[in-house]
Amino acid sequence: MTKKELAISETGFVFDPTTGDSYSMNAVGSVILTMLNEGKIKEEIEAEVTEKYDVDSATFENDYYDFIKMLSSFNLITKN
């Protein structure tokens, strides 16, 4: 789902070598993007995020889809 060329650091720095653009994100965003890059599905990501961070499923659901829209708008993810 993510562009395979993306370089994602553990500190939340993301570099897209195809455009030269770089981005930074918080810890939760970095976890989500990394898991997407690993091919994880939403349910696997939700389980990890709700367990690791203080967030309930409803909040995760809303924020997840907003984050996906943002990633899509920056062309960091592709549709399968």
Main β sheet profile: 3 strands, antiparallel
What do the pLDDT scores average to? 90
Structurally, the number of domains stands at: 1
Q: What is the overall number of helices?
A: 3
Q: Spans of 5+ residues with little confidence (pLDDT < 50)? A: none
Structural class: alpha+beta
Intertermini distance: 6 Å
Task: Give your account of this protein's structure.
The chain has 80 residues and is an alpha+beta fold. The chain has one domain (7-73). Helix content is 49%, strand content 12%. It has 3 helices and 3 strands. It has helices spanning 27-37, 42-52, 57-73; strands spanning 7-8, 13-16, 21-24. It has a 3-stranded antiparallel sheet with strand order 1-2-3. Strand 2 and strand 3 (21-24) form a beta hairpin. The chain starts with 6 loop residues before the first strand and ends in a 7-residue tail after the last helix. The model has no long low-confidence stretch (mean pLDDT 90).
Key descriptive features of the protein:
single chain, 3 helices, globular, alpha+beta, about 80 residues
In short:
By secondary structure, the protein is of the alpha+beta class. The protein has helices spanning 27-37, 42-52, 57-73; strands at 7-8, 13-16, 21-24.
